[in-house]
Amino acid sequence: MKNLFLVLLICLFSLNAFPKDGYELWLDYSSIESSSKRAEITSLFSGIYFFGQGPTQQVIQQELRLASQKMMGRDPVFTQERLNQTQLWLGTREELAQVLGLETQMQIRNLGPEGFWRGSIDFQGKTYYAIIGNQPIGVLYGVFDWLKSIQTDTFDPKSEKTDAPKVKLRMLNHWDNLDRTVERGYAGFSIWDWHRLPGFIDPRYIDYARANASLGINAVSLTNVNANAFILTPDFMKKAKVLADLFRPYGIKVFLTARFSAPIEIGGLKTADPLDPEVVAFWKKKTEEMYSFIPDFGGFLVKANSEGQPGPHEYGRNHAEGANMLADVLAPHGGIVIWRAFVYSHEIDEDRHKQANFEFEPLDGKFRDNVIIQVKNGAIDFMPREPFHPLFGAVKNTNLGMEFQITQEYLGQATQLVYLAPMWEEVLRSKTYRPSPTSTVAGIIDGSDSGQKLTLMAGVSNIGTDRNWTGHLFGQANWFAFGRQAWDPNLSSEEIAEEWIKMTFGQNKDILAKTKEIMLESREAAVNYMNPLGLHHIMGRSHHYGPAPWVEGGRADWTSLYYHRADSEGIGFDRTATGSGALNQYAPEIANSWSDPTQIPEKYLLWFHHLPWDFELKSGRSLWEEIGLHYDQGVKTARSMKSEWDSLQGQIDPERFSHVSQLLAVQVQEAEWWRNACLLYFQTFAQRPFPEEIEQPQGDLEYYKNLDFPFAPGIRPRW
Ligand code: BDP
């Protein structure tokens, strides 16, 4: 007996002592402290009845088992006796209605296949808690939502909740190569172990699917948009099939990237012309083959005629001809084509900002119904701050989807804590004034303003083989926030941060308040110390790590000089009518007021205007002074983020505390580096002293220019 007690004690101790490395993500299900709450939840877990059976129900059972063990230290009781022993009912609307005649109680009929209802039901004198979906996947979403309410201490059995996603496809885009390198990946290698698939199933695949399902992410493209045609060979299809089979019960569909020249590379043809009958036959056969492995295959994601990728232009065809050919072969199987709008060419003598609109506006209405044009949030390239992409609102009869970048290519990679939800919120809430005066980007994406039925929000994944999945622990918050905003683009970044913090660190009020503050100020801090006042694209060449406003030579639209245009007179890119005219691609309400440098929001000033160094800003200071103050402010905020976090020592487990604390120290150094390098460089043009009130930039410009990072992670492989 004594021995048994000892063993138990040791077990308990080692459980607690197991370092928290972030692997569990937001699904850590920390133990419920309050005894009354614990009793309430324990009672619900003590009699769970499932209406219906199937793979998704099994997944729900596993999740409930895990949650119960971790939150209450005991197994849940699943019962076959649906009345006497049951506390919690789980099932679809139809299943419950058939047995219990409860049709009228459920308001979820119109919520689509993924909607759910949860609340209390009185039946024959007893009250049950019920989680009901239109389909099993809705039940799973409802269960995750319920578990979240327990973790965030907001569960109230008396109140009911109905919810359904506002966007149809909520998708992760992995930029993962078949050799397991990840383009712009900062968290290790690809989690897809292609070489050992299909035989070996890494348990991570399931945890990945759970995490996505807990957010409502229901689609994933496994491979890099800079695609390799080999993924479309039967050997790789077999591997992808294993993943698709594993993800199906979690409601996740698999997509793959299609290399436009695949008919040549793996089909033995001489052309990839989309109008050539042999090419069409190739894609038809490939698609049929794909569906023979994956009957619910989602479709193809395509990057064509962009940054050297092959596409229809090689054959004198346009994007619609290319996309429609694929759409036609996918349509009989229910598949779709996601065609990227990230197209620009240095051979065209036009501001890169304008090129996507040039290509796609004339094609409006020409794409098939099963094509979505996936548009990056801004017209250049995932910069720390971009005005929304002018394609939103410019086309009326084309499905448009959003592409955000979760991986922090331009926002501190995996050394910096930058919470991206405020950036996405800023974009989604932007007014487009088209198609109607009240339209917003969110309204176009979710169809409420655009009327489109096929809706999509995609995020470029930040996931890799690192134990904590995302390299920086707080990268998890960006994965989480992306999923939440894709579910409902109207959620605020603040409420999402609160959910994530509570699910990740528990209920401690001090942790919540301080961490939330750090997260919410982090993105503006990064903009300030990297790209204030509308500056953009001044990062290191190729690896994109750190500042390099001096990059010149080679392809012009990949240099920094092309974008900041600093000279002895001033700085900024004139995109008004006197410059490139890109501003005119927006609705007149925007174009008119933003053409005036005294009216445009200052955060976009140098994006659209080239202005003299002495130009006076709203503060009464000169442009040069304000640039200095913004850079300096960024550094100060980074420092206060660090001290705020450090004040939580002892309240957060030592492993995660130290991981974040060390990285924040790196972030402060990187912020100083950005400020010093950029200000010293711009001073060579401005020829003015730095404002007195800022910390004077240290170091030597030549030193900064000579820094070299040949092994920085995530570099794009050369083909
Ligand atoms: C850029 C990345 C590059 C991607 C490209 C894209 O630097 O690696 O291939 O976006 O979105 O930002 O296709």
TrEMBL record:
GO MF terms held by the record: hydrolase activity
SUPFAM superfamilies reported in the protein's UniProt record: (Trans)glycosidases (SSF51445), beta-N-acetylhexosaminidase-like domain (SSF55545)
Keywords from the UniProt entry: Carbohydrate metabolism, Glycosidase, Hydrolase, Polysaccharide degradation, Xylan degradation
Catalysed transformations (reactions): Hydrolysis of (1->2)-alpha-D-(4-O-methyl)glucuronosyl links in the main chain of hardwood xylans
Assigned EC number: 3.2.1.131
Record domain Glycosyl hydrolase family 67 C-terminal: where: 470-693
Domain Alpha glucuronidase N-terminal: 25-146
Domain Glycosyl hydrolase family 67 catalytic: 151-469
Entry keyword annotation includes Ribonucleoprotein: no
InterPro entries in the cross-refs: A-glucoronidase_C_sf, GH, Glyco_hydro_67_aGlcAse, Glyco_hydro_67_aGlcAse_N, Glyco_hydro_67_C, Glyco_hydro_67_cat, Hex-like_dom2
Coiled coil: none
PANTHER family in alphabetical order: ALPHA-GLUCURONIDASE A
Family designation: Belongs to the glycosyl hydrolase 67 family.
Subunit note: Homodimer.
UniProt-recorded name of the protein: Xylan alpha-1,2-glucuronidase
Organism lineage: Bacteria, Pseudomonadati, Bacteroidota, Cytophagia, Cytophagales
